[in-house]
């Protein structure tokens, strides 16, 4: 079966979530070792133990498997961040900066906990069209997080928004290089410290 060369599209999953995880974990291992271009569906079959027919049926091809790794990672992070923010608000946290820190901490923790998949989607060897998909999804997710701060439309606040997102993106890159939980905690603590310095006060009233 010929693999698609156009922009990949994710398909729905109708089988066992455990089977899906085996495919995605196996594919992340293969892509991490060989890169997307050199990897084959046969490699993913060997790594996951799931049949080629099942992979093609549920995903459609190598590019769609790669996209599914990204979609699943983003879904886990978005769900985790949403749950953490709900818990923080129920606990009485109302300060916008504190809520942004909660979001940042959980985001970085989940990236590290899923670093095998996160490293794969961060590498340069990706399917055609994936960079555009990643940028769009990242902007959407980051937009939800940055909205917590309720920044305005002034040039100063737009610049602050860009700096905060750039700093968090750099923190994510460093997190993927952490080997231990202690390393992760240190990076998160530094990241939150720098975010506080960059955004020390609530925005001034218009």
UniProtKB/TrEMBL annotation:
Claim: DNA-binding is one of the keywords in the record: yes
PROSITE patterns: HTH_TETR_1 (PS01081), HTH_TETR_2 (PS50977)
Keywords: DNA-binding, Transcription, Transcription regulation
InterPro entries reported for this sequence: DNA-bd_HTH_TetR-type_CS (IPR023772), Homeodomain-like_sf (IPR009057), HTH-type_TetR-like_transc_reg (IPR050109), HTH_TetR (IPR001647)
Highest taxon, organism lineage: Bacteria
Organism: Rhodococcus wratislaviensis (Tsukamurella wratislaviensis)
PANTHER family: HTH-TYPE TRANSCRIPTIONAL REGULATOR BETI (PTHR30055:SF234), HTH-TYPE TRANSCRIPTIONAL REGULATOR RUTR (PTHR30055)
Molecular-function GO term, any one: DNA-binding transcription factor activity
One family name in Pfam for this protein: TetR_N
Feature: DNA-binding region: 40-59
SUPFAM superfamilies for this protein: Homeodomain-like
Region called Disordered, residue ranges: 1-20
Domain HTH tetR-type: 17-77
Protein name, per record: Transcriptional regulator, TetR family
């Amino acid at each position: 079966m010929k693999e698609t060369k156009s922009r990949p599209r994710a398909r729905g999953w109708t089988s066992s979530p455990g089977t899906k995880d085996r495919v995605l974990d196996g594919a992340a291992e293969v892509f991490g070792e060989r890169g997307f271009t050199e990897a084959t569906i046969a490699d993913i079959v060997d790594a996951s133990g799931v049949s080629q027919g099942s992979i093609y049926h549920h995903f459609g091809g190598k590019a769609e498997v790669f996209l599914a790794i990204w979609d699943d990672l983003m879904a886990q992070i978005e769900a985790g961040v949403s749950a953490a923010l709900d818990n923080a608000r129920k606990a009485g946290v109302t300060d916008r900066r504190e809520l942004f820190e909660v979001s940042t901490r959980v985001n970085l923790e989940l990236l590290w906990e899923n670093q095998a998949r996160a490293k794969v989607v961060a590498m340069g060897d990706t399917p055609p069209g994936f960079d555009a998909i990643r940028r769009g999804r990242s902007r959407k997710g980051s937009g939800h997080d940055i909205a917590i701060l309720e920044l305005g439309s002034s040039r100063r606040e737009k610049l602050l928004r860009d700096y905060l997102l750039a700093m968090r993106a750099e923190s994510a890159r460093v997190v993927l290089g952490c080997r231990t939980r202690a390393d992760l905690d240190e990076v998160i603590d530094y990241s939150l410290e720098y975010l506080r310095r960059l955004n020390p006060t609530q925005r001034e009233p218009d």
